[in-house]
Amino acid sequence: MRGVRRLFVAALLLVGCTHAPWNPYSGWKVARTKHITLYTDTKYLYTTTLESLEIAYAALGASLFSKRTIAPVEVLFLEWDQFLPTFGHYRNGLSLARLPGQGVLGRRGLIIVGEETHVPLAAHRLAHMFLQSMAPTAPLWLHEGYATYVQTIEYRAGKGMQEACLGKIGGGDPTVSLEQLFTWTWGQADESKKYEWYRFAARNLVDYFLTAEEGKLRPKFQDLLVGVTSGKDAKTVLAEIFPGTTVEDLEKKISEYRRESEVRPRPICPISFPIAADRAADFGKPRVEPLAKQDIEQLMFRLWLLPRRAGYMDFYPPSALTLKGSR
Amino acid sequence: MTRGALVGLLLVSACSTSYIYGQTGPRLAAKGADCRFELLDDVPKKDFEELGILATKDVEDGGEAAGGVGPFMEAVRDQVCSAGGDAVVVERDFFGRLYRGTVIKYR
């Protein structure tokens, strides 16, 4: 009887602390496709997400940044019971331009996704990585504007051709002002608890440039990108692009355009980008290999060091890893 | 102490506060085990360098970070002193819980 009680006490001690004696890093593997390198400890659960990421990669690679390709993107796939303790419940994924510390995995940044990541979310995650690779100095609002805009991207394939479609109107949300959009720091955007509004304001701005006035403003989007990634203040760049128009005027125009768009149907594929056969999504069977336990342990340790893990931010520029840049 | 109390204490200590420490800056000489250090909510104005990060593993579980300033300082004292830190700039979650800190050294 005493033996049974001792055993019971030992069992209580073992299960008393939920994070103590479990072995979370056995059975991890890496699944590789042409464009994605995905780390997972699931057997099959990751496959739909991997396919979504491939589709999103091919569509993004053919659209606004078609002139350059980026290296295969590293992705950490977590089930929700792993994701929530690590990154809280205010977001469903993260794109990290850089990780704290040093390690074998995530040298070119890392995407972290949860279960059921479909094409819109995969596109959002990957858009940050594309933009970071092409324009490392892009401001946060441009990142969120572009990443949220491409959530409606579509990949169409058939009869030996593929195309990416951009420019769908997408769902609506309230917005922050352009003044807030252009001045909030990374930390302020997080603390505002209005990150969805922030994204939507930025998305509307991108949509205005790409589809308003029947696409006539589209060439000016390039000017906007060049201006703000060269370090110029967004308001200065907009004043150069639209001489005589104040930010308040532009805000009004963007808002009116959005309202009109909601009642005026757009074409099935508002902006079409052909996808070359060699840049199509890879739907082949992924190559799966075991992942060294110490590598994934090291990766998780580095992720625990990230700032604002309980917050809303889903994109971490390199500056967010410093004390001043995270505020 | 009764046997029940002992078991309870063991269960509590099995889950006691723990913060991991990751070095992200230079490695400095350790200070004494009972060194003094500041706890700051804001980034200090005077010049400093970042030495490392203290963090809880689980941001959902308030148990680890819910103790407030006193328990936090005691929980991280060894790590801060070993790192040679002068202060910890803390990060709170939306409930005010201390779940992360940056160990800094004034220049």
Structural features, described:
The complex is a heterodimer of chains A (327) and B (107). Chain A is globular. Chain A has twelve helices and ten strands. Chain A has 327 residues and is of the alpha/beta class. The longest helix of chain A is centred in the middle third of the chain and has 17 residues, at 195-211. In chain A, helix 5 (140-149) packs across helix 8 (195-211) and helix 8 packs across helix 9. Helices cover 44% and strands 13% of the residues of chain A. Chain B has three helices and five strands. In chain B, a hairpin with a 5-residue loop joins strand 4 (87-92) and strand 5 (98-106). The relative contact order of chain B is 0.27. The model of chain B is unreliable at 5-15 (pLDDT under 50). The chains are: A alpha/beta (327), B alpha+beta (107). The A-B interface holds A 9, 12-13, 16-20, 84-89, 100-101, 193, 301-302, 304-305, 307-311, 321-324, 326-327 and B 7, 10-11, 14-15, 20, 22-24, 43, 50, 53, 55-61, 89, 91, 93-94, 99-100, 102, 104.
Assembly form of the protein: heterodimer
Record field, number of beta strands of chain A:
10
The count of β-strands of chain B is: 5
What is the element string of chain B, with H for helices and E for strands? HEEEHHEE
Helix and strand content put the structural class of chain A at alpha/beta
Shape annotation of chain A: globular
Low-confidence stretches of chain B: 5-15
Please report which band the strand proportion of chain B falls in: under 5%, 5-15%, 15-25%, 25-35%, 35-45% or over 45%.
Answer: 25-35%
Q: Termini distance of chain B?
A: 49 Å
| Amount of helix of chain B | 25-40%
Which two chains touch over the largest interface? Answer: A-B, 32 and 27 residues
Number of helices of chain B: 3
CA radius of gyration of chain B is: 15 Å
Major sheet characteristics of chain B: 5 strands, mixed
Q: What's the overall geometry of chain B?
A: globular
